[in-house]
## 1
Amino acid sequence: MSQAQRRAEPGAGGSAGRGPFRLRAEVVESEALPAVHHRVVLRAPEIAACAQPGQFVHIWCHPPAEIDRPPCDALLRRPYSISRLRPPDGVEILLRVRGVGGRLLAAKTVGDALDVIGPLGNGFRTWPDIGVAVVVAGGIGLAPVPALIARLAASGARVVLLAGAETDEKIPFRVERPRAGRATLPEVAALGAEVTFVSESVEGILITEVVALRLDELPEEGSAMFACGPRAMLKRLAEVASGHIPLQVSLEERMACGLGACRSCVVPVRCDNGTAYKTVCRDGPVFDAAEIDWERLTP
Amino acid sequence: MSQAQRRAEPGAGGSAGRGPFRLRAEVVESEALPAVHHRVVLRAPEIAACAQPGQFVHIWCHPPAEIDRPPCDALLRRPYSISRLRPPDGVEILLRVRGVGGRLLAAKTVGDALDVIGPLGNGFRTWPDIGVAVVVAGGIGLAPVPALIARLAASGARVVLLAGAETDEKIPFRVERPRAGRATLPEVAALGAEVTFVSESVEGILITEVVALRLDELPEEGSAMFACGPRAMLKRLAEVASGHIPLQVSLEERMACGLGACRSCVVPVRCDNGTAYKTVCRDGPVFDAAEIDWERLTP
Amino acid sequence: MTAPDTAVSIGSMSMKNPVMIASGIFGYGDEFRGLAEYGELGALVLKTVTRQPREGNPPGHRTVETPAGMLNAIGLENVGLEAFVRDKLPAALEYGTNIVASIAGEAVEEFAECARALDGTGVAAIEINISCPNVKKGGMAFGVDAGASAEVAAAVRAATGKPIIAKLTPNVTDIAGVAVACERAGADAVSLVNTFSAMAIDVESRRPLLAAGSGGLSGPAIRPAAVYRVYQVAQAVEVPVIGMGVIWNASDALEFIIAGASAVAVGTALYADPAAGNRVLNGIRDYLESHSIARLSDIVGSVEL
Amino acid sequence: MTAPDTAVSIGSMSMKNPVMIASGIFGYGDEFRGLAEYGELGALVLKTVTRQPREGNPPGHRTVETPAGMLNAIGLENVGLEAFVRDKLPAALEYGTNIVASIAGEAVEEFAECARALDGTGVAAIEINISCPNVKKGGMAFGVDAGASAEVAAAVRAATGKPIIAKLTPNVTDIAGVAVACERAGADAVSLVNTFSAMAIDVESRRPLLAAGSGGLSGPAIRPAAVYRVYQVAQAVEVPVIGMGVIWNASDALEFIIAGASAVAVGTALYADPAAGNRVLNGIRDYLESHSIARLSDIVGSVEL
Ligand SMILES: Cc1cc2nc3c(=O)[nH]c(=O)nc-3n(C[C@H](O)[C@H](O)[C@H](O)COP(=O)(O)OP(=O)(O)OC[C@H]3O[C@@H](n4cnc5c(N)ncnc54)[C@H](O)[C@@H]3O)c2cc1C
Ligand SMILES: Cc1cc2nc3c(=O)[nH]c(=O)nc-3n(C[C@H](O)[C@H](O)[C@H](O)COP(=O)(O)OP(=O)(O)OC[C@H]3O[C@@H](n4cnc5c(N)ncnc54)[C@H](O)[C@@H]3O)c2cc1C
Ligand SMILES: Cc1cc2nc3c(=O)[nH]c(=O)nc-3n(C[C@H](O)[C@H](O)[C@H](O)COP(=O)(O)O)c2cc1C
Ligand SMILES: Cc1cc2nc3c(=O)[nH]c(=O)nc-3n(C[C@H](O)[C@H](O)[C@H](O)COP(=O)(O)O)c2cc1C
Ligand code: FES
Ligand code: FES
């Protein structure tokens, strides 16, 4: 990094004036997971100190020392959810490796440095008197779930995770299918959640339908729902949840700045006179489902 | 490589209808040499079978399997002289690693494949009754010298190599400076040449001046000179040799096709009415010095 | 050797050095705060504003990466002139360097109105964006026509005493002609290039990757095309030229300067490196020092053909 | 499923498939012989010829790599019409597929003369290069003006019964306008894009990297800008559009086709992979088969905005 670049500097974005920070984070763990997934743990003290579940980091995929040379691919940073905090100063991310940026990140080895900005955006809001917290995740939407579950469990809520995917290969965790009973994700369950996992290809049901079926079981007061996954899933959940249970959703959109400046990553939100746009990177990625204009949101 | 691409196919270029061939050559040796040099030996039977000293190969620097993906740098192939034939089917090249293409090639390891077209261009002409062959090389201009020396020595000529560089680091061979006598390059001498090496920084003289001083020693009949190196060196040699000794020079120029089609790599040659252009890739890279229009050749 | 002199003047706007931030990259300046010393740069150009707020292009992808570049089709989403002056400008002025407002409109009078409203504010200069490829009306519609460009420049000239910069589109036959027309109409400088109009298609869905269909190409990809246009314009006008088209490092900036740019603006590179402007500036200083060049202006337009 | 129908007609020239080789890349066809089955392709466009031989741009670098692209400034070096017809064409015709001659000139009459001389030869079509950015007179001077382009097209139309293709420059404000003018004047097809004018400077020597100063940018860098221009032109003309602008793989080609190109030409990619055209063709066939598309023409211009 050049002299002008700071190791860690509070910026204006993010929630409540904490960060974002830009720093050169060391890779302290790098592990290939089943299918095309990968776990990276970064030493990022300033980020770890203030990150909220649902916030993300924006990562430059090339070596920090080469920032002076324009790359020809992965020109832009890549947004990844903070998956879990690893005290004292670790930030874990889970990648589903699909494109060039993901490949570059998955190729990093312990000791490599990454130029990271974060924590960015607004995470999931939690509050003390949540009785039952239903967390719904689809596919790589499971990435931010561990931090969220940890937070919810710590706040005393009963946490129910309903996770789904097309196939077991689409999630970054190991699936356990006991002889009797439903499939689970032991690593996630260990964080303090009751886990149900369904894969379309095995169980033949969509997770949204599981949610719809189980919605009645929830106490009317003190329940809350949190979701992350493909837009079609989120849209269906918003329908299901509407009028029954407060729902927060985490959205994705193509980003450039990641800071709220460029207006790349907007999604339509309802407003008094028609629609307005909010940014996924700064206003989100987590929104109240009721706030989103689902009709105008592209699939 | 795609189906459409052939393993080895005779083309129309090159000398006497032999080649060029395009083939997927396996790297059988890859060795870092002193300073920024690198030796790569390719298994390229069709090329090895017909290559002449002074001809070159045109190398795609990315993995052959990725030819379907446009790269963002090293978009064009890179020309490298055939440095030496390594029977039965090896072709050796020596790289001075300066830019992105060189770096990609130097990073290849044994067993990797390279997509190579060759042999290309017209090499050095040699003939049976050369008495004394003076080979003059500057810097990385030494690359094609081993093959040339081997050919000349085999034809019965006495081979004198006068090699020079700014510093010892600018050549791909080990320099030996005995207590008494002049510096030599043992690896090259072993091929059958009397070697004199001078480095500007140590001996404080330019190789062209050594040539000028020693020109009188040569028999009037049956001597021939061959040169490869920076243009300033070749131009000075052309002056020195003119009227005394036939001189062939090997030139470099930026290439695109390497086949004589695109007219990228032209150099000005004398012709009856003014100047004309010839291509380094197909008419050259070796030209009679007397043919070149040295005044119009850019430095 | 004393430190090289890097000062540049654009009309009455004095810049301590030639490095600016390009419009639209940096929003209104607040979002990047703290990620670099933006106050060290010569000037910061804020996101283009229009008289009324605009919601920009429809939702869906507004940016997409392409080889060595990116397409954007934001569609001039902005808070509108009033909110800009009231809510955004004061904070931007705290950077302590020149703040340049960028304005656009669908009619000549709209440009003039914006300029009039900015005349009493603390902005150091006004950039007129007649080159946005991402809005149907206005924007590029002016910039592709020398006459229309001149009309806008003249109207803005009449409306403000601030220095004005005409931002030009490369999507024209004769960019130098447009530049000269703007100069004659009173522009104190011209800046170029805005993005090249472009489109990328997903061959599976057979739909454009950008929600808006087409957009503007920026990135290292276009640098040589941008450098050439700066060269052409610099040959034709007397006023300073501000060069841009992915300036990523000092060498890129120097290419533009040697081609004829008196100042340069960093755009897309800021997304990768929020401190790109500062990095470029340091590199320019190093180059001047190591080449014993006393004044930056000594090398502006020094390319030898 | 039977093999998809990939045939394309350009006036009276029938091509068995839409893949061509772009002019200037392939010389007169002889140099690449044996490196791929060029006869399998739809048509091969040979290097542009002029009435008299031309020596092209001065010596020094004529090509230089840039991010995801290359600049060239060959300057239409060619053997001249007579030697072309006598020495080069016969060998090219041996490929057994359509051979297209590309012609240029400094005056309208020169284009007409070339066309007349080619009328009696075996060329399947004539491309008129009114878009070369690398010569001072002629070339792009025509292509940047709709009227002048139409004049050239009309003169060539009068001089030959062969199908004619007008090759357009992207360095204009209104490429669709130029295309329409050529169509009205009798062009059977338009091809685009030729290269974007561009420049790269060595900041150490402060000299352009190309001996000619400026040149034309091709490469993956410009693909989105080229695709958009093909889209614009295809919306405006009835005649077939031939798309190009670094088509490297089948997906690139399909972008052009979906944007509106009836055929595509492979250029710069041939330098990396002499079999790029064949590779692209195979990939197009695979796409059609795997998407159960019976005729290529079903997806020409099928982009949904
Ligand atoms: C707030 C947020 C949090 C995310 N968290 C995770 C996570 O924890 N784990 C994970 O695997 N993925 C996550 N993603 C998606 C991740 O950003 C993309 O997979 C990644 O950017 C793809 O980059 P690539 O170069 O590998 O793929 P490519 O397909 O080559 O990327 C091409 C371009 O598209 C953009 N892009 C592609 N997919 C997405 C996407 N889904 N969202 C936004 N931009 C995209 C890229 O950033 C890049 O600019 C998140 C996205 C957002 C917006
Ligand atoms: C006939 C011929 C034989 C050669 N033999 C050798 C050899 O045996 N060993 C060796 O080390 N080098 C040799 N060179 C030079 C070698 O081709 C360049 O060093 C190499 O192309 C640089 O590529 P790069 O990507 O590493 O450098 P970069 O500087 O990144 O290359 C940028 C561009 O310039 C071109 N270029 C740069 N230098 C040269 C050059 N000297 N000649 C032609 N094009 C150049 C590259 O091909 C590329 O297109 C030869 C050149 C020619 C023409
Ligand atoms: C996301 C994005 C938004 C932009 N918005 C504006 C804008 O509002 N006004 C403007 O004049 N230029 C705008 N531009 C153009 C840039 O200011 C600049 O001219 C262009 O991107 C070329 O420079 P670069 O390659 O360094 O980015 C925008 C560019 C990008 C990438
Ligand atoms: C080295 C070179 C020479 C060219 N010469 C010609 C030419 O003589 N006539 C012509 O019409 N186009 C010429 N072109 C332009 C190409 O035909 C093509 O339009 C352009 O390169 C864009 O396609 P590409 O990106 O696939 O190469 C040339 C291009 C290159 C790179
Ligand atoms: S990515 Fe720039 S505003 Fe969200
Ligand atoms: S490189 Fe194409 S003619 Fe020499």
## 2
Amino acid sequence: MIKYSFTEKKDTRSGFGAGLHELGKTNSNVVALTADLTGSLKMDAFKKDFPERFFQIGIAEANMIGIAAGLSISNKIPFTGTFANFSTGRVYDQIRQSVAYSGKNVKICASHAGLTLGEDGATHQILEDVGMMKMLPGMTVIVPADYAQTKAATIALGEHVGPTYLRFGRPNWPIFTAGRPFIIGKADKMIEGKDVSIFANGHMVWQAIEAEAILAEKGISAEVINIHTIKPLDVEAILASVQKTGCAVTCEEHQINGGLGDSVAQVLSRFNPSPIEMVAVNDSFGESGPPLDLLKKYGLSPSNIVEAAEKAIKRKK
Amino acid sequence: MIKYSFTEKKDTRSGFGAGLHELGKTNSNVVALTADLTGSLKMDAFKKDFPERFFQIGIAEANMIGIAAGLSISNKIPFTGTFANFSTGRVYDQIRQSVAYSGKNVKICASHAGLTLGEDGATHQILEDVGMMKMLPGMTVIVPADYAQTKAATIALGEHVGPTYLRFGRPNWPIFTAGRPFIIGKADKMIEGKDVSIFANGHMVWQAIEAEAILAEKGISAEVINIHTIKPLDVEAILASVQKTGCAVTCEEHQINGGLGDSVAQVLSRFNPSPIEMVAVNDSFGESGPPLDLLKKYGLSPSNIVEAAEKAIKRKK
Amino acid sequence: MRMAFRFLLNLKEIRDDSKYPPLFLLQHPKIPPIFAGKIYLAHTMAKEYDLIQLKKIASQVRRDIVRMVHACQSGHPGGSLGCTEFFVALYFTQMKHDPKFNMDGKGEDLFFLSNGHISPVWYSVLARAGYFEVSELATFRKLGSRLQGHPATHEHLPGIRIASGSLGQGLSVALGAAQAKKLDKDDRFVYVLMGDGEQQEGQVWEAAMYAAHNKMDNVIATIDYNGQQIDGPVDKILSLLDLKAKWESFGWIVQEFEGNDMQAVIDGLEKAKSLAGKGKPVMNLMKSAMGFGVDFMVGTHKWHGAAPNDEELAKALAQLELTLADY
Amino acid sequence: MRMAFRFLLNLKEIRDDSKYPPLFLLQHPKIPPIFAGKIYLAHTMAKEYDLIQLKKIASQVRRDIVRMVHACQSGHPGGSLGCTEFFVALYFTQMKHDPKFNMDGKGEDLFFLSNGHISPVWYSVLARAGYFEVSELATFRKLGSRLQGHPATHEHLPGIRIASGSLGQGLSVALGAAQAKKLDKDDRFVYVLMGDGEQQEGQVWEAAMYAAHNKMDNVIATIDYNGQQIDGPVDKILSLLDLKAKWESFGWIVQEFEGNDMQAVIDGLEKAKSLAGKGKPVMNLMKSAMGFGVDFMVGTHKWHGAAPNDEELAKALAQLELTLADY
Ligand SMILES: Cc1ncc(C[n+]2csc(CCOP(=O)(O)OP(=O)(O)O)c2C)c(N)n1
Ligand SMILES: Cc1ncc(C[n+]2csc(CCOP(=O)(O)OP(=O)(O)O)c2C)c(N)n1
Ligand SMILES: [Mg+2]
Ligand SMILES: [Mg+2]
């Protein structure tokens, strides 16, 4: 039985839009920027109600990052919004110098991350953004799991000081975290278990929850932990869980290199070497197609998580 | 006793310059591009002897990557040369789409990587380039250890087909690999040992060789392996070594996140969980200073490797 | 002779040139009557279509576009419809090109699409020109297709030499290809199309500067000057002001022409060739209307990236004459 | 009154304004005679230095530059020397600014250095203007210094609001700061300096377009139009052609002035203020000579990023009058 139910699906980017609009009301320092993607980023409500705090930059992402950094100097809290690809790889050097190294309070908010943007295909399906952003010293990196958590994370960023990368996506997705507390840097244990630790984030948390139900039927007790914050990583939560279970599965809509899997592998290798199986895109580009078909084709389905969990358990000494 | 001696120090970028010049003579399809850094990249000789195959792009790195991709369409073999920062983070999206995803035979050659560029400081000291490039599907990533190996690697790229990132640096450094075969993707075992595997690349290989001597005096037998190719990773060599030694130390002039350390951690976590200690920049920006002072301050000295090795050995079960 | 047919027929059976005598081709029942006249090899086909024929091809391409976008319920009809005359004119009257497709394009004119989102029009024209079966248009944006949402080489679709979709990169790539042609003493042209919103990307101006300084006079660039981008009219989002003055100040020869008048496009492209080779790169500012050809789509950014529903599709198709067979 | 002194003296003891009576300051033996005249608060000091005084400051700044670069045997003297008049004029006659340094710069004029490699001139002027002790100039580019090779906020050096060094980013940052000023109804100016080689970076043109469209008329940008970049003369590497026409076509008000004539710089900056506030951003094309002030360095890219040896230092210092104390 799936331990979480949902009554509604919504896109995580709408959670961002809702959170941003909320922030607009409560914090007059919050400003928003977009690079010709107001609608895709669901920033319309903010734009409508706070036009003087909304900056349309045009198709010029590098300039957007610079402008955001400049705005932050006078204590504005800029939220930039474009696709995840153009939020990271397109402007890495600008983020690095003008935001991260300069310690600016800029919130880089990125939609259409991962395979699940679907039909636009590989040029847009960035699977390396988390890896890039987590390498930047001082950068907070958050990958919320659903609409509710994306909204909560967005609102939390209003108070949080420092450069942040917030990653979300395009497709409608089950809403199952509503009401749960969201704390930056604090992993969220969704399901207790003892045989294997499943660490997931973003859309993959739901996949993990579905996988857990299948595993439970097979008599395997899986712990499911939502690592919504990749950086700073909740090392304690990871170590405590694997201490108990003895093995781990990581699940992410990201390249196998550079993301959550590597973060967990680093922690365990340094503090408690344990078998890890990684459910991620296996070092290939994506392609056009419907989101769920893509997750299946690229090995990110619940069944892949189940397989990985069984394998990880077998590998325990 | 240090197992390798050297009679000369030279900068690795000069190895690139010499290799490129060599290629210019032997392969008329080789073309070279720079973004206003001919001298810093040591491309003068190529420019002088093959002016019609040398393209001065000006300070426009994004354009340089696009032009290189375009040149490759007609079977030219373009080598782009600028600082590592502007070779990667500045142009990640361009490399991703026009080179990696398009499968173009472009050689991205990057100097002044890491802390050891010295006085220019953190804006230029990229410590995330390897992490970025290794996430790109199909990208070959090479970090040679000295002048001789950089020259050999450059020449090897003339034959190798596919997108490549070649990383080298600014300071003079011992030359100790002369005469050793260089094969892309094949780790180079420098020193046999049985207590701990030290995996290093770039300038850190020499640091590891120095560390091995200190460890030997302490009665510890360290294996030193030069992982000059980060991608494709020589998984077999890594597993075979750790199978024998039971623990690993990784050494790189890179952020602790995303580089060689994480590559090794991923391999071991998936195939043979073992203690790893990582000698790398610990998630911070660099600063201005003399190269060796910087290596010391940021924990990349031979003594840090020694410490890490001792710690890794202690952690063996 | 046979190659030209392949453009239009896409018969698998005639892929191998040597297998069938010309007679077979000329008598083939699927050759539409409008092509019963002169048929030339791709390499020499320039201007051998009369205006009526070209317009009929354009009408069919527009049908393909709306049907493709409708079928997968995603993609970019607006810019595609607006650039239909351009693509048809370029591939059927201007370029020396070989649908057998050699990646290196030696001795051929090359085309690069920088504003990759208007892939539907390119795919349709490539198929109608014989690069691949028109039936493959049905796979657009579907799992496993070679017709990716944005053009890609990754799946080896003939006709595509580089991926695009992330804006701003195409002119640079075209310059590289043009440099290679100069190195190889290959005197054919390199064409590239960009969007007007895309002009906001800095990389475009890096490339602009390079092209002038390096006298890239074998490059003929075109801007789809439709005045629209995703969030609204370009003038409201981030105005390009006097775009002609901008490109001239960057050292280019600039001309303007109407993009939805087939004759004007052909004349403009002919003119561009005559302006080329004089030490400067050539820029065409092509005034087009986003969504041209479908009354409810025309002139608005709303159809930049929206797919018609069944009813809208029917309405659109009713306005677009069926000239060749639908795929 | 006291703040102005702090600019010039950098005495730790007088950091706290309230501690010492003005008299103490005026009589302090270290006050150089050239500053015995009128002294005004930073906020109102515009034009209260006469030309002779400003030139003397400039001479001292040039001494600082060559000594700093010599001491660490790295750094960029060429562009620094060429921009000395600009920095001195800006900080000592133009900007309303507070050396106590508030990051947010509310109510102050702000300055951003986009071509961060010419940090030596900025550091010297900041120190000479009282932002930190001149003695700290000796730490330039050394381990643990706040005076990084390229300007940084990371080590909290007063006067710096953002890191630069990777070219092309400064104008964008300045626009953001200027947007914030407009939001806050703060009517001070935002100044930014760029290199001419730096104009080759596309991001500059993204920012150019944005500034015009959004009527950023509180931005006064300057280009160090020295005609040189690392690999050689700009005209040979990648020509900017008619740079004035370029910026005008991007919607800016453009004026030119001589950059190594103190009076011309002051007049130019005054003029720029009068051109501002009219709905358009203002661009100064400042014709300067790289390496100005040191005969063997002037006018060549060779000294873009090379340090003088001991002998060259002596030769340089012999040409640069000691006016304030060397650090
Ligand atoms: C680098 C980059 N930024 C943003 C986008 C998202 N995007 C796709 S098309 C488009 C608008 C392009 O406008 P224009 O070039 O005028 O094309 P048109 O809408 O007229 O077809 C945008 C912003 C992108 N594809 N690439
Ligand atoms: C993005 C980027 N690319 C390359 C460099 C290396 N670089 C530093 S200064 C410089 C030349 C700059 O020329 P210009 O702006 O004219 O400054 P000047 O040499 O006149 O001081 C270059 C290429 C850099 N710092 N940043
Ligand atoms: Mg448009
Ligand atoms: Mg210059």
